[in-house]
Design brief:
With 193 residues, the chain is of the alpha/beta class. The protein is 31% helix and 32% strand. Bound molecules: guanosine-5',3'-tetraphosphate (G4P).
């Protein structure tokens, strides 16, 4: 998606050969017009896929995912990274190791928000190692749903997430696939959306 690629080119900071900072429009400050435009594009791509729910993982995936759900006319489910007091025992959980943050958490979905036969589109901000995406898919499938595709805004194509998910048979799409962050420069591949 040219609009997102342009914003990354203009505003992102390359923190290292593996980490990109996009705080000015996605991870800290959020640009609602850009998020709406992204959600509209994703919805356009999947409008004939009979999506019944959009899923995301808290927290930075929420903004683009809510606009995707709005434009598809379906509900958004936010997968939680920790159990809260309001989530009772009726949940599906799967552990996620975050390599970037060096932490482990239980990705959690209340059973009432997934139905047998649901066709789920998973939207998230970054695809890096793919561990969070894989866990999200396990939760969808535990509830009898099917993952139609993973959509990441920014895919770090030089890390193993995309390959891992595709090897498991999932469709993976990105609006801004990043081939490399070497020498402080962001190099893009051709986008799927
Ligand atoms: P994975 O999500 O693909 O399994 O990979 P990883 O464990 O490496 O990612 C952990 C967290 O770090 C995720 O955010 C992911 O979005 C974020 N992340 C990974 N690479 C980058 C990067 O280059 N730049 C930025 N800005 N973030 C990156 P999270 O823990 O889910 O946090 P949140 O921001 O969604 O709350």
């Amino acid at each position: 998606m040219q609009e997102l690629i342009q914003r990354i080119s203009e505003e992102a900071t390359v923190l290292s050969d593996t980490v990109l900072k996009v705080d000015s429009f996605l991870n800290h400050q959020v640009d609602p017009l850009l998020m709406e435009s992204i959600g509209k594009q994703i919805a356009e791509k999947f409008k004939t896929s009979q999506i019944t729910k959009v899923f995301t993982i808290e927290s930075s995936g929420i903004a683009p995912a809510v606009f995707t759900a709005l434009h598809l006319g379906v509900q958004l489910v936010i997968l939680k990274k920790s159990s809260s007091k309001t989530l009772n025992g009726d949940v599906y959980q799967h552990p996620v190791i975050s390599y970037t943050k060096n932490t482990t958490y239980e990705l959690t979905l209340s059973k009432q928000y997934i139905n047998r036969g649901d066709n789920v589109l998973i939207v998230d901000d970054f695809l890096a190692q793919g561990q969070a995406g894989l866990a999200a898919a396990k939760l969808v499938e535990a509830g009898g749903g099917k993952v139609v595709a993973f959509v990441s805004l920014i895919e770090k194509s030089f890390q193993k997430g995309k390959k891992l998910l595709e090897e498991k048979g999932y469709k993976v799409c990105s609006l801004a696939p990043v081939a490399s962050l070497e020498n402080g420069t962001v190099t893009f591949l051709e986008a799927d959306i």
